[in-house]
Amino acid sequence: MRRILFVLLTGLAITLQAREIAVSSASKGVLKATGMEPGTNCTIEWTHDLRNSFTNVSPNFENVLVDSNGMIQVKVPLFFRINGIPKVPDGMVPIPAGTNSGTDPDPDSGAYSLTVEAFNMDAAEVTKAQWDTVYNWAVANGYSFVNAGSGKGTNHPVHSVNWYDCVKWCNARSEMDGKTPCYSVSGSTYKTGQSSPTTDFDANGYRLPTNDEWEYAARGGVSSQRFPWGNDITHNEANYFSDYVFSYDKSSTRGSHPSYNAGGEPYTSPVGEFPANGYGLYDMAGNVKEWSNAASGLRGGSWADQAPSARCASLWEEFPTGYSYDLNTYGFRCVSR
């Protein structure tokens, strides 16, 4: 029996990203050969490099019957699925896929569910030091911002940034890390102005969390609670403005947090000062409100806000430019795939 060797060059490039990937080509996947002796059998062998020897590892490639037209036809494996644990970017923690009921004891929350795919999230709010590093690179590489960003200290969260600033900063961080930016305007990476960009949720760069992603992550794997840690709040758990009006505000100290209310406003605290939630996330309640991917969404409450704003379910709706009198309560953190 004559043995015939076939070489199949598909030209496919496979890029692995932080989730399960399927690679396919609709126009390929079948290997055909003509001019064979009808009724005979043949073997198909392959090699990934012509300098190496040929081999056959598939039973489907052995004893292939040549049809009456002198042709064979076999399916070539072109679909690949990679299951593994990708590297989580520095400073981020993995948030598992799943569904959370999202309810809390307050009557205005109603019943709803939060279903998300797996993603990574900054363990802490973006600090002033982290902001400056990316910001300085960005302005030297074609980016412009409305606000330069402020911070009470390098390890405090950056504040006084509007939604447009944060979105462009996410793109710059992506480019610095060699990732694909998530935000574009008219097909180009969003770098300047105050536009409503398109979000590519499949890109591997950084972006702001959706409202569902933020709340799902804030709950840390538990549901039916007001806060990431339970139904009551004190200054031991978060940096917020305590008020006796709310029955679940059990703090023994009232007003601004006594450990951080010096040196003039804003009374932010260094990131990571309070216990993390079940996913390893810090300051998901209090310190600074965090912009979400919805241009009008702010989550988590701030140092200046009362206990209801620190609830996992709390959502502020403001203009993406923010309000000047409230700007020093705005911050953010990033997510990625």
Polypeptide structure, described:
Residues 1-26 have low confidence and may be disordered. The protein has a four-stranded antiparallel β-sheet with strand order 7-10-19-14. The chain has helices spanning 128-139, 163-176, 211-219, and strands at residues 22-23, 30-33, 41-42, 64-65, 72-75, 80-81, 92-95, 98-100, 114-116, 119-122, 183-185, 188-189, 198-199, 206-207, 289-291, 297-299, 315-317, 330-331, 335-336. The protein is α+β, with helices and mostly antiparallel strands and 337 residues long. It is 10% helix and 15% strand. It is elongated. It has two domains: 1-85, no CATH class; 87-337, paralog of FGE (formylglycine-generating enzyme), CATH 3.90.1580.10.
Features:
2 domains, alpha+beta, 10% helix, 4-stranded mixed sheet, paralog of FGE (formylglycine-generating enzyme), 337 residues, disordered N terminus, 15% strand, elongated
CATH architecture assignment name of the largest domain: Alpha-Beta Complex
Please, how many helices?
3
Major sheet size, sense and barrel closure? 4 strands, antiparallel
Q: What is the SS-derived class? A: alpha+beta
Helix content: 10-25%
> What is the CATH superfamily classification of the largest domain?
paralog of FGE (formylglycine-generating enzyme)
CATH fold-level assignment of the largest domain = paralog of FGE (formylglycine-generating enzyme)
| CATH top level assignment of the largest domain | Alpha Beta
Shape field: elongated
